[in-house]
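Usage example:
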Amino acid sequence: MISHFTQFTRKFSAFPVLAMVVVLFLSLQLNAQSKKAAENAAFNEKCLKCHGQSKYKYTNPESGTEVTKKMYMETIINRSQFAESNHKNFKCTDCHSADYDTFPHPGHLRMEAMYACNDCHGGDEAYAKFKFEEIESEFQASVHATKHSEDFNCWMCHNPHTYKINVRSDEKIKDIVAYDNAICLNCHADITEYQMLTDKVNPNIVQKHDWLPNQALHFKNVRCIECHARTNDSILVAHNVQPKAKAVRRCVECHSTNSILMASLYKYKVQEVRSKAGFYNGVIMNEGYVIGANRNYYLGLLSLIMFGCVAGGILIHASLRILKRKK
Amino acid sequence: MSGKIYLYPVWIRLWHALNAILIILLIISGVSMQYTNPENPFIRFDIAVTMHNISGIILTANYMVFLFGTFFTPNGKYYKLTFKGLFARLIKQFTYYTFGIFKHEKPPFPVTKESKFNPLQQFTYVIAMFVLVPIVLITGWALLYPEIILTKIMGGSGLKVNDFIHVIIGFFVSFFMFIHIYFCTIGATFVSNFKSMISGFHESH
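Running the assembly step on the lines above writes:
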């Protein structure tokens, strides 16, 4: 019969070997991935040589002279933003035609269709948790889709060359807010971009939000979509941007213990961290301060007890005064 | 023996009345904001915020009137604490309130022209007016201009701490108010102290 001690040592002597195998396997995997990424980056350099800057050069075959031309803004890829983006490990030709290999680029490539998010992400198990299909249907119900038809696509806010995952990250709430609001302001605070989809002049955002107390503080601490998009419990970031009239205007929607921020801005962190004991909204406590939504449970209880004592003391004193009054 | 002394000049009565109204408005709107609930708002949040802001600003001006009155009129003398024997006097007054009053004893520190407040009153008024109220006013102004005061001076980290101090001290101010109003019923008659704050004359026991 094998003793418990022998069983124990046998069981755990296998552990270091198993751990080494796992580490080796993972490092090989990572190595293969980073090798592939490095290969793709080297490949992309051929494109970025011109598209990674504001000018490009070529030799005129007729005259034999070197010509320098400006690159169109829309076709410039910001290297550092691309290097941080979700699609950083892709080869340009994963999405674009391999015919771009030649210069001048063939004219028909101008008609090349742009991929939409769901062309790749739709129906893919690997991306199931992001619920791209639900995002698509929410977007279709939004004013962005209903007012602008096909002209408004995912790219307007999520340029695949630069977009990086934001909410599902360790980023600070303030940085998430700044990144996300910059997406809205890209059109709503820039008349050139805004008028790509309309002939109207874009409204002055600061003036339109004059009614909002502590406007600057709100703009830094919450995203535009907190008030302007309808939350959906099954997706993390609301995409159903509502018409102006349906925007949240009641302070208590956020400033209360049922704060909608818990279902929007703080949702991911709440899911990840969970509220700490004693505080209703742990994340709001740690990363922001929302009057009415932040309540310390113990402080509330203590104040109630103290208030009870004061009221009780007064009641006893008053009763005794009545009982002991001069007849 | 019962007599009337003119203790409260017009400016004090006006200051006191305004102070009372503002503090009550601040407590009501403050509680409404702190325990706000969309289904059952006590006072609608934005209305409570405006009410709280306006009352707070007027209270600050009124506090300046109080400070001026304390430093430049004879009224200041009533707030000068004499530390020697203070504890014994506080205990004496406390004992009167807890026991003596029920035995119909004479108040140990009767109200005179020279000494308007009994030791317990004087001590709590000094704490309220020179500690609690200044703290709520300062933290209140910091909340009114958080982007200027809190983020620029305190580097943005002070918002939570500042608000906690404001709420806790505000809570003590509301305690003061409840006890203060109750103790006003301990006069020559149940309502005589309230009448004094209108007529200016204090009625002795």
